[in-house]
Structure formats: C-alpha cells, structure tokens
Amino acid sequence: MRSPYLLLDVDGVLIPFPDREELAPRPTHATTSFPTGRTADNPVAIWLNPAHGPLLMHVIRTGLVTPVWCTSWRRDATTLIGPLLGLPALPHVDLPRPQITTSHPNGYLWKRDHVDTWLGDAPAIWIDDDFTSLDHAWATERTAYGQATALMQPDPHVGLLAEHLVEVLAWAAKQPAARAGVSCVAHEAEAA
Predict the structure, then answer these.
(1) How confident is the model at residue 168 (pLDDT cuts 50, 70, 90)?
(2) Phi then psi for 118, rounded to 5 degrees?
(3) pTM of the model
(4) At what angle do helices 52-62 and 162-173 cross, to 10 degrees?
C-alpha cells in the first residue's frame, strides 16, 4: 500500500514572501537563483530557512509520506531549491504554465485541477500558502469519497514551521498505509 503523497509548494512555503516593508523573513539565507527561462541578468532572489532541510528530511525518513514538489518552480524545485536545503531529488507534478493574472482564476487555486488528475485516487496532504475555501471543500469532498486529502496553509510571510510537519506526520500516521505498516511490523515481530 502506497504512502500518501506530501505535495510541497515552494513560494510562500519554503520561500516566504517579504513583509510590507520588503524585509526578508527571518531566519533565512538569501541567495539568487536562475529558474528555467531566466538569465544571469534576470535572477530570482530567494530566502530559504536552513532549518527546513533537516525538518523535511526527518519527515521523508519516516516513510509515512511520499514527497513530491507541487510548485510553479516545477523541475527547478528539484535542481535548484532542493539542493540548497540538502534534500534528495524529488519528483514533481508537471504543472502547465497558464497565462493567468491571479492564482485563483476560477475561485480556487489554479494548480488544483492538475493535481486532482495527477493524484487520481491517491491520498495526499498538500502544503501551499494559497488555498481558498473552494480548495478546502474539494479536499473534504475527496476525503468523503475515500481519497484522504488534507490541506495545510502556512502564512506566506512566515512559511513552513516545524508544527506544520508535526501535523503532516500525525495525519499520515492515521492513514491506512501507515496502519498497514504498523500491523506488518507487529506481525513480523510476533513471528520472530
């Protein structure tokens, strides 16, 4: 039985947005990056919290979730962001590049329809800073149909906190894949 997916956004989650005074969030390490389509004269400034790498590695090592990038950074999350945090190469949801002026063109997060198709009937916990009430209703509906889905929404000016990952692990531990793993371990211990 497959572990639930942990869908990870980057902007507003691992790269918090500056506050109104344009001050970088703390604690962060500032660097520049050149995502696909950017040149050396057009870099992207990023602020990463160095604690995120070890926190995410702890979650990954539990085996309770299967981490996947779900971000407009697409593959660049694996090649640019992940290495800065000490993360292994992770798969990504291959999101399109829509020509939109808002992240909620239909009243909900633009990624959602693509994520829904990508997930199929797989369980998932999704961390993104930009959900609307319609996204939360979608997660509730998926869960009601047996496709456990949880949304976690960090403050985009603060980003991911250790508490969010504690909640991810608590949610994942309640899923059938985790319970099956526990009973398999218990059964193997009894047999030994």
Answers:
(1) very high
(2) -60, -45
(3) 0.84
(4) 10
Q: Which two structure tokens, joined as six digits, stand for 166?
A: 């504690």
pLDDT in tens, 2-52: 899 999 999 999 988 877 766 655 555 556 555 556 556 666 677 788 899
> What is the 3-class SS of the chain, one letter each residue?
CCCCEEEECCECCCECCCCCCCCCCCCCEEEEECCCCCCCCCCEEEEECCCHHHHHHHHHHHCCCEEEECCCCCCHHHHHHHHHHCCCCCCECCCCCCCCCCCCCCCCCCCHHHHHHHHCCCCEEEECCCCCHHHHHHHHHHHHCCCCEEEECCCCCCCCCHHHHHHHHHHHHCCHHHHHHHHHHHHHHHHC
Give the pLDDT of residue 40: 62
Angstrom distance (rounded) from CA 169 to CA 162: 11
Q: Cα separation of 124 and 172, whole Å?
A: 9
